[in-house]
Structures are given as C-alpha cells and as structure tokens.
Amino acid sequence: MAGTGDPDQNSDVQKGAEPHTVFGAGGPGFGTFRFWFDSQRWEWSPEVYAMHGYRPGEVEPTTELLLAHKHPEDRSQVAESIARSIREGQPFSSQHRFLDTAGDEHHVMIVSEGILDAAGTAIGTRGYYIDLNEALETAERATLDAVVPDVVEAHAVIEQAKGVLLLMYSITADQAFNVLSWRAQETNSELRDIAEALIAAVQANPPPPPSSVAAFDHLLLAIPRSAPTSDN
C-alpha cells in the first residue's frame, strides 16, 4: 500500500491485507479508519466496509464514495469537515447520517486523533466510526452484565461522564451511554473505570475551544492508556 504522506502506514496494517483495509479494534457497531492528507487516501476496517454494505476490499474508499453515501441533508456538512481537516491538518470528526447499499440509514459519530510524522507534523487522521443506531444500543446493553456488574454503585460518575459527552457531541443520553459502553467493551474495562478516567482527564485538561471538539476526541481515545483496573 504505497502512497505519499503516510510513512507509517504499514506499522499497524496487517501484512498482505486487502488494499485500503485497516486491521484494528472493531466490534458490533464500531470500526476503525485512517485518512492521509497528502494522498487523500482512506483506509477502512472490515467493520466500516460492512456498515456501508460492502465486503472488505470490494471497493476503494474515496472521499467521493463517502460523500455519495451521506444523507443528502448531511452531505455538505461532511464535505466541509473533510476539506477543513485537509486544509488545517486537523482530525476529521463529525456526526452525521449515511445510507448503506441497501438504503438503510445509519446515524454515526466519528471520533479521531491526528497521525504525526517524526517531526511532529500532522500527516493524517485515524479514529473510529461509532454507529449510534438502535442496533448498537441493543448489542452493547447485552454485554453489560460482564462489563459493569456494579452499575448501580457507579451510577453517579457514569451520569457525569454521560453529561460531558452530551455537551461535547450534542447526542442523546442513550447515545452517550453507548459511547461509554463502546470504550468499555473495546478496552475490556468496566464502565465505571472508563467514566472515572474520562472525568479526571477533562478536569485536568484546559477547556477546548468552543469551535472544535478535536481536543476532546483525543482525550476519549487516550482513555485505555490510563484507565485504572477495577478491584471489584
């Protein structure tokens, strides 16, 4: 997978994989992606292909293909987000709707962080597609007995973390719960630990500019590197 502006592209992509396929953490309702500014090339995990109705490697993900799938009312917003990401070298973050190949609508949130070269220059962005549809809520809630056995005791801090997500992403309470559950499942952590780590990180970090959620995306994606291990 040769290309310009993406010198570390082989560092976490499975050798011999289908072109333009990211092999990383994925699961029901979420998948990973990468986008390189120079070549404007996208890479999708198998889960993101599936969300759009494709088999992994069936099509080459391009900006044109992404925009063709977007809901007509959200297409211009996403196009501007991508253009701003390229122009300013910032992570691509968005909340929008798209239609898969069967015509089914997906409401997704994109959280991402920058890819930097050795000199610290932004050369791309990587992150997650999170499907906020009802199907994700059902799948995530089915795992709660294993992920968070003490959910009642953890109620206060979980509600606080949900409030932060509601404020930053303008999503519903159920969707905020889905995001926390996704991080708990993806990191094999308890929901309480994820919530506590997120609140601690927000309190220690300067408030992000009102015009951008990029700093908050970074905090959310950094949680597994600092989340404590529960003794319960």
Give an overview of the whole structure.
Helix 6 (155-169) crosses helix 8 (191-204). With 232 residues, the protein is of the alpha+beta class. The chain is built from nine helices and five strands.
Write the layout of secondary structure elements.
Elements: E1 30-36, E2 41-44, H1 46-52, H2 63-69, H3 75-88, E3 94-99, E4 105-116, E5 122-131, H4 134-141, H5 144-147, H6 155-169, H7 173-187, H8 191-204, H9 214-222
Helix pairs in contact: 2-3, 4-7, 6-7, 6-8, 7-8
Looking at this protein, list some descriptive labels.
232 residues; alpha+beta; five-stranded antiparallel beta sheet; 9 helices
Briefly, what is this?
This protein has 232 residues and is of the alpha+beta class. It has nine helices and five strands.
Number of strands: 5
Order of helices and strands: EEHHHEEEHHHHHH
Can you summarize the main beta sheet?
A: 5 strands, antiparallel
Q: What is the first-to-last residue Cα distance? A: 45 Å
Fraction in helix: 40-55%
In DSSP terms, counting alpha (H) and pi (I) runs of 4 or more, how many helices? 9
Averaging pLDDT over every residue, what do you get? Answer: 78
Strand order of the largest sheet: 2-1-5-4-3
Amount of beta strand? 15-25%
Morphology: globular
Q: How large, in whole angstroms, is the Cα Rg?
A: 17 Å
Structural class by sheet pairing and helices? alpha+beta
